[in-house]
Amino acid sequence: MKYGNYSFIKLKFMSRIGRKPILIPEGVEVKIEGQNIVTKGPKGELNFNLPQTIKIEIKENKISLFPLNKIKENSALWGTAGAILAANIKGVTEGYEKKLEIEGLGYKAQLEGQDLVLSVGFSHTIKVKAPEGIKFSVEKNTITVSGIDKQKVGQIAAEIRMIKKPDPYKGKGIRYAGEIIKKKPGKKVVATTK
Length: 194
Hints:
With 194 residues, the chain is an alpha+beta fold. It has helices at residues 16-19, 72-93, 150-163, and strands at 2-3, 6-7, 22-23, 29-33, 36-41, 44-49, 54-59, 62-67, 96-103, 108-112, 115-119, 126-128, 134-139, 142-147, 173-176. The chain folds into 2 domains: 2-93, Ribosomal protein L6 (Outer Surface Protein A, domain 3), CATH 3.90.930; 96-176, Alpha-Beta Complex (Outer Surface Protein A, domain 3), CATH 3.90.930.12. Helices cover 21% and strands 37% of the residues.
């Protein structure tokens, strides 16, 4: 298969994600600036630096990716690039969010401007600054982390959870919404007989 001055080799281990064309919905603009792919939509703009071994083509509102050589690692890069571009398109149109729940007596979360302030059993409160492109919201004992960058939303949610991971005995702490914590049985007090 020919693409410009490049010859593409059909890989035996073709990536199912990589070879699948990515649809560009109405209201989304995808621009190729060298290896930098700019995705603009109603919710914002994201950039992705395409690996040098992958080439991109946009035709009739469809993105197609092609590997340049027959190297096994290229198949993984091909699939990853396709998944990231699809995630960026969803991010600039719908956005992403992760929900976390706080459980524990006296544990709470509140907003201070754009930042998140946590009271989770320490002698002091913990402030989590909202990075660029990330928004926090709090309702009762639920924290919502939202943004257009899937990777960044997931990373910030994981960092918040790490502040006070759920206790394996009582389940107190910060967990993902719907996460099931396997509780360990407490130590049983054995009465000693004289």
